[in-house]
Specification:
The protein has 17 helices and 16 strands. The protein is of the alpha/beta class.
Length: about 500
């Protein structure tokens, strides 16, 4: 910004500012004009002091209308009295009896004519007004050869400094007034709950597609665009990046330590402060990661206002949760098997079903509570994909039935004040918040693995799984082949 301002200032100086030329005439002030032939009266120090004091009087006489009108006539210029007066600048030279008159004009010839006209008119005018004094021309005016202003160097430096000031001012104001969550430290300022995992951005331009949103994706300009099915599937389950996979495994491990009893079924709700923070994809990937531990996992789309799981996972929309809660089907008809990768443990999904007019009443109904109790007898983990708290209150209606809540916060998207209000609402209904999932983070976010170590370990483990792991399996086969048959 500073360089841009400097360039704009230089271009504006060259093309928009008219060059000005200065022509100067110098005068000597004497307060004694008495002389007798070749002899003259001696001048005392008092006379010199008086001469210096007369400079101000001479400048006043110069700026009078009558004097400048005579100057205009003598110079032969088409200027008014005010225009010529604005061109003049007169001052003493270093507190001496000499004073300088400078004429500034866009025309160098006109500046010279006006300055020499003053040199001719002013001494005569002074002699007729103040007796016993005189003003003599020390240096006549000449035609200037180069402009006195503007200064390209000075203006460019001013533009550069102005750009620096604007940049620093913008950064300071942004830090003061922008409450968008940009780093883990911002979450700590407004939320006392721990950050369980930081999931990297899986929607970089190189990967294509976008998935965040309440069934849509939000661009930087705030507009929404629907993501394609292939892009959605590429960021779920086994298709996600290595860094994202490790983040969800870390989330899984921390969730296991959040519960003291590993034998009971745990119902975990996922919500967010705003729509578009990626809670649905977080719920899918969490369910997939838990299912890889040979756990029976059920994922329920409890967002009956804007359901997204059926579309994202290519599942049947009906029958779903709303159909069961309105007694249109039984509980056994709801669960659909989801196998994101052949050969891996699948998990079950219950879609939201048909959009009802009263989703909050259905989620807080006794039938919903009984359904959760029945699911505890079947599954090890039940994941509830709940609506955002900042827009509707559906999540609060069922949060009390969960064993813990996860808040999904998207980097450079959610507001600190809104997140703090969301956490307060869960605390008000005495719902346990297990922690925060910091979603769609950039490469430099988070405290773990910054800089060199992050790149080193990521390269190391990728190399291990791709190379050393295969060699290890091959070594096992070779060792097994060398064992005699009777020992086998």
């Amino acid at each position: 910004v500073a360089v841009l301002c400097a360039v704009l200032t230089l271009v504006g100086t060259i093309f928009l500012i008219t060059p000005q030329y200065e022509s100067t005439a110098m005068f000597y002030v004497n307060n004694s004009n008495l002389s007798f032939g070749d002899a003259s009266l001696s001048i005392s120090s008092g006379d010199l002091t008086t001469s210096r004091n007369l400079v101000d009087s001479y400048i006043v006489i110069l700026n009078t209308r009558e004097t400048l009108v005579d100057v205009i006539d003598y110079a032969g210029v088409s200027r008014s009295y005010k225009e010529v007066k604005d061109m003049l600048k007169a001052a003493a030279v270093n507190e001496t009896e000499i004073f300088r008159v400078t004429v500034t004009n866009p025309d160098p010839q006109e500046a010279e004519r006006i300055a020499n006209a003053i040199a001719y008119i002013l001494p005569k005018r002074i002699g007729t007004i103040i007796d016993g004094t005189s003003a003599k021309v020390v240096d006549a005016a000449v035609v200037p050869t180069k402009p006195s202003s503007p200064s390209y160097t000075v203006n460019t430096l001013i533009g550069f400094l102005l750009g620096c000031v604007l940049s620093v001012g913008f950064i300071v104001l942004r830090e003061i007034f922008d409450t968008t969550i940009r780093a883990e430290e911002d979450i700590s300022l407004c939320c006392k709950h721990p950050i369980l995992a930081s999931v990297p951005d899986m929607t970089a331009p190189s990967k294509g597609g976008s998935y965040y949103g309440y069934g849509s994706s939000r661009s930087k300009k705030g507009k929404y665009a629907t993501a394609g099915t292939s892009n959605k599937l590429s960021i779920m389950g086994p298709n996600i990046s290595f860094a994202a996979s490790e983040a969800y495994k870390l989330l899984r491990t921390k969730l296991q330590f959040s519960f003291a009893d590993e034998n009971d079924c745990h119902i975990i709700g996922l919500s967010s402060a705003l729509s578009g923070e990626g809670k649905s994809l977080t719920a899918v990937n969490l369910a997939y990661t838990l299912s890889q531990l040979d756990k029976k996992v059920l994922l329920i789309d409890c967002d009956m206002r804007r359901p997204t799981l059926a579309e994202k996972m290519n599942l049947l929309k009906q029958p779903g949760l709303s159909n069961y809660l309105t007694r249109q089907c039984s509980l056994d008809e709801l669960a659909q098997i989801c196998e994101l990768k052949s050969g891996e443990n699948p998990f079950h999904v219950i879609t939201a079903g048909q959009n009802p007019p009263n989703p909050m009443e259905l989620l807080s109904s006794v039938r919903m509570k009984n359904a959760l109790m029945a699911m505890r007898e079947i599954y090890d983990y039940v994941i509830l994909d709940l609506p955002p708290v900042g827009e509707v209150g559906d999540a609060l209606a069922i949060a009390k039935e969960t064993d813990g809540m996860l808040l999904v916060v998207r980097q450079n998207y959610c507001d600190r004040n809104i997140l703090a209000d969301t956490a307060r609402q869960f605390d008000f209904i005495h719902s346990k918040i297990l922690g925060v999932v910091f979603n769609c983070t950039s490469e430099h976010s988070g405290n773990y693995g910054k800089g060199y170590y992050k790149r080193y370990y990521r390269r190391y483990y990728k190399r291990y799984y791709r190379g050393y792991g295969r060699n290890y399996e091959n070594n096992d086969r070779s060792v097994a082949a060398s064992v005699p048959m009777d020992e086998k």
